[in-house]
Fold this protein.
Amino acid sequence: MPTLYITTPGARLEKDYQRLIVVKDDALLIRIPIFRVDHVVLVGSAGITTPAMIALLKNGAGLAVIDHNGKLIGRLNPPEHKNIHLRQTQYQRGQDPDFCLSVARACVYGKIRNAAAMAARMRRKHPQIDAIILEKLRLAGKEARKAESLESLRGIEGKSARIYFLAFRQALQDNWTFGARTRRPPKDEINALLGLAYTLLHENLVTALEIAGLDPYEGFFHADKYGRPALALDLMEEFRHIIADSVVLGLVNKRILKPQDFIKEKDCYRLNKPALEKFFKAYQHRLHTQVIHPVVQKKLSYQKCFEVQARLLRKTIEGTEPCYQPFLTR
């Protein structure tokens, strides 16, 4: 089932019998059956009526609100999973340093391994990318599997991210500039795109963890911080480059998006409305792309792979699997 993105300024999501409709100034923009929607994202000044909100929750769908810069403002979800024993086990595991390190190693290794695969793909199209980058990423992956503490693992993860973005930067077309990775605010157009893609990906992983019955806020690698879904950030690591970065690189290098599609406000950048719709379309297409899942050996969409990874993590927490196996792309 799809995620419904509402990007039109002033548009409003309403309920009409067993359908959701999007209207603006009494003009109908979209009509879709409620059962076909599993999540709604409101962007900017888009709104929602109370009946529509209730209908979403009753059908098990969630709602997220983000601003024009891709920053999450808040989310609304149906009642949480009622498996108290599972949650208690998760919290106990979160207090076990050895367990935390084991899961964190797997997540970071998955991220670095997929970063190396992504860099190799980029190099096939852009031979100017230095081959030493791939070798450094492979070595970093080996270091991650042997890390003896979360602190050293975070250092390895940070170093590998800097190495990876050297390749990403070299793969960009000449008309795009991309400096250091900056978040709030994004200092250039590429950072704005990455920030938006990571926000959407994070929301997808929050949903996958809740479906699996896990608490997205109790993480094992990312330091707990009030109000931050740390476990979603943990699980997100292995998908960052192959989902979010892949979408961004495709949009800019295929010239679907251009630098003039951005609006600069103070010291940050955001997409105009037509470009934003192109972005969401490309992101949704990536989520629906099917691949062979390396563990279950079935052809699944990336969105379904999120749920499979969340369930694999649940099995590890419950002790029915000896260790967490990250998603590794080919």
